[in-house]
Amino acid sequence: MTLKRTFTLLLGIAIGLCLLGGCASAPALKARQKSSLQTRTFEEVSYESVFRAFRKILMEEGYIVNSEDEQGGLIVGSLERVDPFVRAKRVLRVFGGGDSASIGGDHRKGEVFEISVNVDPADEGVVHVRMAIQKVEIYNQGERRGSVLVSEESYQSVFDKVNDEVERRREQGSV
């Protein structure tokens, strides 16, 4: 096999693996790391207070609560954002200007952040919470591409706000 042919073969294999595995710039987190990122324990507080604090904070952050089951401890919500290129295409179509297909070349319409929160009472006054946030990109032909967020800042921001709300409730005596 010639050097050029070997290089072409290896390049083809590398590209194929990237397409199958989804070339990621950041290393994938191990299950234990992901769990640590997504899980918190609240102490000296009631289950109801933590559940209601999560629901309130998600709504304040702009999430639509799609479903909730307080008895089962589950809250599912979503936050949709329209891609600014979609708005630009609409404006161009209205005013008849230029080739609107060339704006935002991948035909991406926007993204949805889907969140799932599981609130689990452990012992008296101890509540465990696991939260997963998924970012789903939406394209013109209905295609959806999603991945679980692994940004510590995203999770920490929500947990901090919920903790503040739980503290506020505690001060009001509604814990």
Folded structure, characterized:
The protein has 175 residues and is α+β, with helices and mostly antiparallel strands. It has a single domain, classed as TATA-Binding Protein (2-Layer Sandwich). A hairpin with a 4-residue loop joins strand 4 and strand 5. Helix 3 crosses helix 5. It starts with a helix and ends with a helix. The N terminus is likely disordered.
List keywords for this structure.
six-stranded antiparallel beta sheet; single chain; TATA-Binding Protein; elongated; 175 residues; alpha+beta; 30% strand
Provide a compact summary of the structure.
The protein is an alpha+beta fold and 175 residues long.
Structural class: alpha+beta
Helical amount: 40-55%
Order of helices and strands: HHEHEEHEEEH
Query: Radius of gyration, rounded?
Result: 22 Å
CATH architecture, please? 2-Layer Sandwich
Shape: elongated
Could you tell me the CATH topology label: TATA-Binding Protein
Write the layout of secondary structure elements.
Blueprint: H1 3-21, H2 31-38, E1 39-43, H3 47-60, E2 64-69, E3 74-82, H4 84-95, E4 108-121, E5 126-139, E6 144-148, H5 152-171
Antiparallel strand pairs: 1-5, 2-3, 3-4, 4-5, 5-6
Helix pairs in contact: 3-5
